[in-house]
Each structure stands twice: as structure tokens, then as C-alpha cells.
Amino acid sequence: MKPMNRPLANLDQPASSLTQAEQLLQFQRDIMETIALGQDPQLALDELCKAAEALVPDSVASIMIFHQSDNKLEVRAAPSVPEEAVVAISHLQPGPSAGSCGTAIFKNEPQFVSNTFTDCRWADLQQFATDFDIRACWSMPIRLSNNQPIGTFALSSFVERPPTDFQIRLLETSAHIAGIVLRREQAEEQLWHVAHHDSLTGLPNRMLLNLRAEHAIEQTRRKNSRLALLFLDLDHFKTVNDSLGHHAGDELLIQATARILACVREGDTLSRLGGDEFVVMLENFTDSLSARHVADKILASFSKPFRLQQHEYLITASIGISIYPEDGNNIATLVQNADTAMYQAKASGRNNYHYYEPRLTEHVQARVAMESDLRTALEQDQFSVHYQPQYDINGKDILVVEALLRWQHPTTGNVPPDDFISIAEETGLISEIGCKVVRMACAQCVQWWSEGLPQFMLAINLSPRQLQPGCAEKLTRLLNETGFPVNQLELEVTESMILEKGTRAISELAKLKRMGISIVMDDFGTGHSSLGQLKTLPISKLKIDKSFIMDIPDDANDAIITRTIIAMGHHLGLKVVAEGVETPAQMKFLKKENCDFIQGYLLARPLAPEQFATDIYKHKKTGKK
Ligand code: C2E
Ligand code: CA
Ligand code: CA
After folding, report:
1. Is the domain of 186 the same as that of 211?
2. 231: domain range?
3. How far is the CA of 404 from the centre of ligand 1 (A)?
4. What is the pTM (predicted TM-score) of this model?
């Protein structure tokens, strides 16, 4: 048989110029980077194998998974091993002479076989060793935190040899990292299923409906056909629940699910949104009236009584229908409108269906109201800016101050930005609001500095909508107007903005950078930018999203991600700031990991201008916060 491909040494840096400890650290960092950036687990495991091979010449790495149910080992990753060898070794049963990996699982201990032809642990695999020229093989169990083995990480060598101390540490590290990837993958799969299904009926939930709808709408648009949503609500479900109990209510929902499923085709999606609300998504028809036939069929299937707790009950349903593209071009609008139509069906006597009739829904009304409130807010100066400092890692010096928008609504009081920024974006009002923030914050800082307050960089958040052609010119005007020095401005943008807006956004950012403005990547880690993309962006700083900071140092995954983002940022020559720092333990961890700056409630909350000036002045005098 064909011998295995010998992997090429492929380190960026010649391995010989690094000490072994440095090699191990670099190895760990590179792989962790792949993992933290949300790489596909298979890719991460393949990379892990290749990276280990690069450090041990004349060897190939493999990761096997132990399936407890049938007591077998399967190859999960072995990028340099030929297919014939993978096939020959699959279904390996653990035992005292089942090679290094089979024995490692059998004994739940590392196995370092330095000569496969003489060692009794390889007795069962002599043919395999001969066919593929394996002379030595070292295997390390991959374990769960309770010590249960879930697989192995192994290096098979083409020369007879025992592992060196360095190679043993490499095996330990690799098995540990493989364990992280595998556990995370498993948890993600379970989470995905739980997060996308209804536990009572097993039907897709709203989230999965949304995902499927996105795809279906795209298909429908391309084929120029139609898609219908049937929003179904049981009539008087509450009465069943109240009089027969929740158990009977659950039973009814399960039986109703079966009846509806029998009325739809395989490609259609039935989902449960919650309570007694179901949505059927019908794809691929051209006549919008055909949705009526399905609705009729469902209503007919409800004409037979349901059997609950040995009694029969007649329970009907009401259905609202909305059609793409007539009644909305996204799933949220279609569901909303089908829901409205369902209420019309209830209002006209229940046990029937109703098509949506275009008119203002409550949602639209609320949006319109918010939009008009935002316009008034602009006219009547209801917006203000609060200021939150960013400190050096010791919490001593204030280096940057972030401007955060505040809205004091005359009747509802303080409205948090998360509640209105998105509507301001949708309606385009964000441009005007954004200008207002820049003007207020810049003017405020210029005034402070003229009064003798210490200098700092001013950071301002930028919405994707604002990053349009002409953005740079507009900013220049505002800076000139207020006399604010351009090189003391930072703009915080998000990963999603760059991914969504693409190269035009990037070139606009590059223009801003050339003007002397620093660009910061906000909420880093929540999007999907890759290391490669990061390298090409005109940014100077990364801000680690507060969701990662929240659970450090206790949450091991978040700690690894935070550590990796810092190392990776530094590797790319970027400064790294952590936001949302609330505890001394978080600060200590960040300091240990060489994070550059910190921001959060621990050191200072966002403060109104007067408060900020008083505090920062005090801070300057005492030299600390
Ligand atoms: P962001 O840019 O990520 O801002 C950080 C948010 O975290 C702020 O919320 C801040 O008050 C909060 N925060 C700061 N330290 C801590 C902490 O230690 N713990 C916790 N839990 N939170 C902390 P805020 O002010 O409500 O702003 C929310 C978001 O609204 C901002 O997120 C930003 O995306 C947006 N925003 C705020 N002002 C503006 C603005 O002027 N323009 C634009 N386009 N967006 C803005
Ligand atoms: Ca920010
Ligand atoms: Ca942020």
C-alpha cells in the first residue's frame, strides 16, 4: 500500500529559532486563535493535527473519538493520513493490545509505544503497522472534567523512538485543546437543538421558523412565486387549560400538532410560536388563493372532537393568512400581518380563516410614534451626552472618554439607546442624531480643555447608516465648527458594519484614518470577522465585547477567548481595551493578560458632563480615581 504523506514543516517562523517552550506557546496561541474566532470544529481539529505534526518531524497526528454506546473508536481528524489507513483503523475496539489509542482508552492512561513491532500493546495491529510503516505511536486520552475518556490524540512516528519531554507536553496540550473543541461542539449542537425547537411538540420554534423563512423568501423571490403564512390559534384554548388543567392543555397541543401536520406537505414548515399559536409556512405556489385550500383542510381536520381525559371535546381554530410578497417582504412583517388577520378571523366568529388586509398595524403605529418622538426630541433638545472614561490597565490615567447618547423623554423619562438607536437607523434619523452627538461632545471637550481639564481622546460610536460616502466631509465640518483637534477623535464601529457594508465602508474608514482619526472595532468577538479580514482593516484598537468580560476569570471559555483576543490584537499591532469591567477580579485577570485599557462600572459609570468634570478634576489632583 501507499505510504503516508509526510507532512511538510510549515511554521511561519523557522522552528529552530524558537525555544521549545516558545514553540509550544506559539502552537497553543495559534490554535486557540482559530478556536476563538469561531472556526468550524473540523477545521480547528485539522489545524491542531497539522500544527503538532509541524513540531514533530516524521510523524502524523490523529484524533479519534470514543463512542461509548458501541465501544468503538472512530477517526475524527487526521489530515495527513491516507484514506486507506483511516478506513483500516476505523471501528477500533479498545483493549490491552489494540494499539496505542485502543490501549489508551482501555486503560484511560497515556500510552507511549516506542517500537510498534515488539510492543505487546500493538499485537492486534501488526498488519496495520507494516502496511503503513508505523514504527512508534504515542497516544494521549482526551478526557472530560470528570476524567471520562472521550477520545485520543496521537502522534504516529515513522521512526522508532520514545517521546521527549517536549513531545509529551505537546501531546498533553493537544489533547487538552481537542477536548475544548469537542466539548464546545457538543454543547453547541445540543444548545442549537434546544434553542430551535419547542420542547412539548418537538416542532421548530420561532427562531427556526425565522431561519427557514429567510431562505424560503429568497427562493420565492428568485422563482418569482409566492409564499404563504398561516397563523393558527386554537379557539378557547384557555378554557381547556383552566378547566381541565395544563396536562390536558399539553395533550391537546400534541394532538392538534399531529392533525395540522397531516394537512401540509413535507416541504412546508409547521412551527409553534408558543402557547396555542402555530405558524404554517407554505412554499412554492403561484395562486395566492391556494393557501385557502390548506386552511380549509386544517379547519376540517378540527371538526372531529379531541379526546382528552376520557372525554370528547370539540375544539376549533382560527387562521390568519399573509402572502409574500403582497403582505410583507420579511418574515417578521408576514407573521405580524398573519397574526392581525387571525384576530379578524376570531372577530368574525372563530372557526374560520381570514386573509390579511393591508392597514396600519400596531407595530407600525408604534414605530411611527417613535419616529415622530425622535424628531421632536431633535427639535426640543431632549438629547444629551454622557461620558465614560477608559483607563490605563492600572486604573490610574484616563486616556480615552467615550461619548454615550442619552434621551430624556418628557413623559416616559430616560430611554436607553438600545431602545431607539435601531429605529433611528431604520428611519435614517441616525444621521442627524449622530451629528448632534459629535457636535455636543466635541464642543464639550473643547470647553473643558479651555478650563484646564486634562487632555484625552474622545471616542464616539458610529452607526453603519452613518458610514456613507460624504461621511468624512461631514465630520470635518463638525470638527472645524467646534475647533476639536482631529487627531484626538476615535470612532467606534462594529464588526457587523464592516461585514455588511463591505469594501465601500472599509475605504470610507481608511479615508477617516488618513484624516488622523483613530478607528476602534467595538463589541469585538460577537461578529464573525476572521483574522485575515482584521489584518486588512484600517483599525488601531480592538474593544473586547462586555459579554466576554462579564464571566471572566471564572468561565474558562471566556477566559481563553479574552486571552486570545488580546494576544491576537497585539500580534497585529493593535491596542486592546476591555469594556464592561465590573469587578477587581476581572481587572486583575486583564492586567495579567496585558490588556492595554479598561472601561467599566468598576472605575466609572457614564457620567453627566457636570459630574464628569468634577470627578476628573478630583482624579487629576489626587492622581487616582
Ligand atoms: P456600546 O458602544 O457597546 O457602549 C457600552 C455600553 O455599555 C453603554 O451602554 C455603557 O453604559 C455600558 N456599560 C459601560 N460600562 C459597563 C459595565 O461595567 N457594565 C455593564 N453592564 N455595562 C456597562 P449604553 O450607554 O446604554 O449604550 C448602549 C449602546 O447604544 C452602545 O453600546 C452603542 O452601541 C449605542 N450608542 C450609545 N450612544 C451612541 C451614539 O452616540 N451613537 C450611536 N450610533 N450609538 C450609540
Ligand atoms: Ca462603544
Ligand atoms: Ca461595546
Report:
1. no
2. 206-356
3. 6
4. 0.51
